[in-house]
Structures are given as C-alpha cells and as structure tokens.
C-alpha cells in the first residue's frame, strides 16, 4: 500500500487558536483526522508529523526514504526561508506536494515566494483544510500514474 508522510511545519500545532481569521477554526488534530479519512477512501497509508524545528523536519524527510512514496508538506513560515528543507526534498527525490491553508499570494509580499515550490510536484494554497485534502488526492493520483 502506498504510504504518504504528512509534514506540518512551525506554529501549525496552534491551529484553532492561531489567527482564526486567517487559518480558520480547525485544529491540527481535525486536519489529521480528515486526512486519515481521505487516505482510507484512497486506500493509502498516512503518517503525520508536526515540528517547530527546521532540523527535525529535515530529519523526517531523510527518514522517509524507503518508507514513504510521497510527502505532503505544509512548511509554514519555512516555505519562505528554508533552502535546507528544499534541499532535503530534492535530495530524497520523493514526490512532494506543498499545501497552505491560506492563499499565500494574496497576503504579505514576503509570503509570495516559496523555496519549496520548485522541488514540489505542485502546490495547493488558499482552501483551508481543504488544501490538504486536495493536495493528498493530487499526490496519490500523481504517484499512481508514475511510469
Ligand atoms: C501557511 C502560510 C505561511 O506563510 C505561514 O507562515 C504559515 C502557514 C499556511 O498554511 O497558510 O505558518 O503555510
């Protein structure tokens, strides 16, 4: 069975209480629950991990080699700063989809650039928790149509 690693970056553990006007009222637990439901329907396995530490996210990406066939990542603010996370994704060469709850392109200009996008299969941004569902569906479709 295909296995997907779901990575949540910094501050996403505070979802539900954190700027609800921007990020909505859903908690990280409810997003992970939604992803488990979608995974059941798609007949894939998901393992979710959240960290506020860049190095821990990089370690998780390295450890995904040989364990997971795809990565779904919301890198949080590291999206806009982390060459190291981008390099880790490029290094393991595991198909990766980038997701954001908010539409990063209609927010502050410093959020308009993603270091991750060039090494991602694609990006879903702006649909709240739905971004994760769409991202997981698209990633699984991509993995299933790989030659
Ligand atoms: C975010 C967008 C980022 O700019 C921000 O730093 C986050 C969350 C999102 O999901 O909308 O922490 O990745």
Task: Produce a short descriptive summary.
With 147 residues, this protein is an alpha/beta fold.
Question: How would you portray this structure in words?
Answer:
- The chain is of the alpha/beta class and 147 residues long.
- It has one domain: Rossmann fold, CATH 3.40.50.9100.
- It is 37% helix and 18% strand.
- It has helices at residues 20-23, 28-42, 54-63, 83-92, 129-144, and strands at 3-8, 45-50, 70-74, 96-100, 122-125.
- A five-stranded parallel β-sheet has the order 2-1-3-4-5, sandwiched between helices.
- It is globular.
- Bound molecules: 1,3,4-trihydroxy-5-OXO-cyclohexanecarboxylic acid.
Q: Tell me the CATH topology.
A: Rossmann fold
Number of helices: 5
The end-to-end span amounts to 17 Å
Query: Which small-molecule ligands are present, each listed once?
Result: 1,3,4-trihydroxy-5-OXO-cyclohexanecarboxylic acid
Q: How much beta, percentage-wise?
A: 15-25%
Shape: globular
CATH superfamily: Dehydroquinase, class II
For the residues shown, what is the average pLDDT?
A: 97
Please describe the biggest sheet, giving its number of strands, its sense, and whether it closes into a barrel.
Answer: 5 strands, parallel
What is the CATH top level name?
Alpha Beta
Number of strands: 5
Oligomeric state as shown: single chain
Which architecture name does CATH use? 3-Layer(aba) Sandwich
Low-pLDDT residue spans: none
Provide the domain count.
1
SSE run = EHHEHEHEEH
What structural class do helix, strand and pairing data support? alpha/beta
As a percent range, the share of helical residues equals 25-40%
Strand order of the largest sheet: 2-1-3-4-5
Q: What Rg, in angstroms, do the CA atoms define?
A: 14 Å
């Amino acid at each position: 069975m295909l296995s997907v690693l779901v990575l949540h970056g910094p501050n996403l553990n505070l979802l539900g209480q954190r700027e609800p006007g921007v990020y909505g009222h859903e908690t990280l637990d409810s997003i992970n629950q939604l992803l488990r439901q979608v995974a059941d329907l798609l007949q894939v396995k998901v393992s979710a991990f959240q960290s506020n530490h860049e190095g821990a996210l990089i370690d998780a990406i390295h450890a995904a080699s040989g364990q997971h066939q795809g990565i779904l990542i919301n890198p949080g603010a590291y999206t806009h700063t982390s060459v190291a996370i981008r390099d880790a994704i490029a290094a393991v060469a595991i198909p990766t989809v980038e997701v954001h709850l908010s539409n990063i392109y209609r927010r502050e200009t410093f959020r308009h650039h993603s270091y991750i996008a060039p090494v991602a299969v694609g990006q879903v941004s702006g649909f709240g928790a739905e971004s994760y569902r769409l991202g997981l569906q698209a990633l699984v479709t991509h993995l299933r149509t790989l030659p």
